[in-house]
Specification:
It is a single chain. This protein is mainly alpha-helical. The chain folds into two domains: 53 residues, no CATH class; 255 residues, no CATH class. It is built from 14 helices and no strands.
Length: 314
């Protein structure tokens, strides 16, 4: 302890920076994924060891190769290449929490309030410059987290552009938004669906690995009993790993991605509710309330929090 405090400041500073970076990285990771993996692995190994099992007996890399490789190949066969690539890319999404938190919704609702307020005071044509170049818009620039979400900005601007054109009834706009969101949700469900199918096949490929192990064992009949026992144990580990990967990791990963897709769907439902209410002539603050009311309680800002956000942005 004393030797640490005796270090020169120029030596301590890089250590503190590295420690801060590590803590920040862990904070950005999805804690429930890490905790869940630890609980699954820890409980299984603890129970196995308590029964007198040898942990290294579970180390069967060839079984893992057969099970995971065959499952990957089956997924590639059963899905378009773009979906298979999306499955690989989705690994990063597993380690990050949902970005649709209360702060994000506060920014979204305040942004929409500012836009609706401007159209009410100056007319719909007044926002034409904002929606044509949102990056240069003084309204969008006040909300950097929303501006970085290019899909959300494009979605908002596209329907504001239709509203400015003024040749569509509110119910027609709502139907158009519903059609787009339905297609978006179906596309987003392809990747979790592919992962779920892969999880469903893992126990079967575990049996394949076990049968191959038994085939190898049959070729060793007449050998030392210890060698036969080791071979049979390796085959049984294949069945174990197939079931464990399916129900302990891959299946839950698909469920987590479905939850993230659900959060994204609610984000766009919130935008839709606000836009349709505004097009029906509802005052800006009430139009935003339509969007706030569709949110889950865990991320829904209170009326008071939203009012304070309005004042802070003025």
């Amino acid at each position: 302890m004393n030797s640490f405090f005796a270090l020169e400041p120029q030596t301590i500073q890089p250590i503190l920076k590295a420690s801060y970076g590590f803590v920040t990285l862990i904070g950005e990771l999805c804690v429930n994924i890490i905790l869940g993996v630890i609980v699954v692995i820890g409980c299984i190994l603890a129970g196995y060891v308590m029964h007198g099992g040898v942990v290294m007996a579970l180390y069967q890399p060839t079984e893992v190769l057969i099970i995971c490789g065959a499952s990957l190949g089956a997924m590639i066969i059963g899905n378009p290449l773009a979906v298979s690539i999306g499955v690989v890319k989705s690994a990063g999404a597993l380690m990050t929490p949902s970005k649709y938190d209360k702060l994000r919704y506060l920014e979204l609702l305040t942004l929409l309030y500012d836009i609706f307020n401007k159209t009410r005071r100056e007319g719909l044509m007044a926002i034409e410059g904002d929606i044509e170049e949102p990056e240069a818009s003084p309204i969008f620039s006040n909300y950097p987290s929303i501006l970085k979400d290019h899909h959300a900005v494009e979605f908002i601007c596209d329907y504001l552009r239709i509203m400015v054109a003024g040749n569509m009834a509110p119910h027609e706009l709502e139907a158009l938004i519903d059609q787009e969101l339905e297609g978006h949700h179906q596309e987003a469900a392809l990747i979790p669906g592919a992962i779920t199918s892969a999880a469903d096949g893992l126990p079967g490929f575990g049996i394949v690995a076990a049968v191959l192990g038994i085939v190898i064992t049959m070729g060793k009949l007449g050998g030392p009993p210890s060698e036969l026992g080791h071979s049979v144990a390796g085959a049984l580990v294949g069945t174990l790993l197939g079931i464990l990967f399916a129900y302990g990791f891959i299946g839950p990963f698909a469920s987590y991605l479905n939850h993230k897709n659900r959060d994204e769907a609610h984000f766009y439902d919130c935008i839709k509710a606000c836009l349709v209410a505004s097009m029906n002539g509802v005052p800006p603050q009430i139009a935003v309330e339509f969007g706030r009311k569709v949110l889950y309680h865990s991320v829904r800002p209170s009326f008071k929090e939203l009012e304070e956000q309005y004042r802070a942005k003025k």
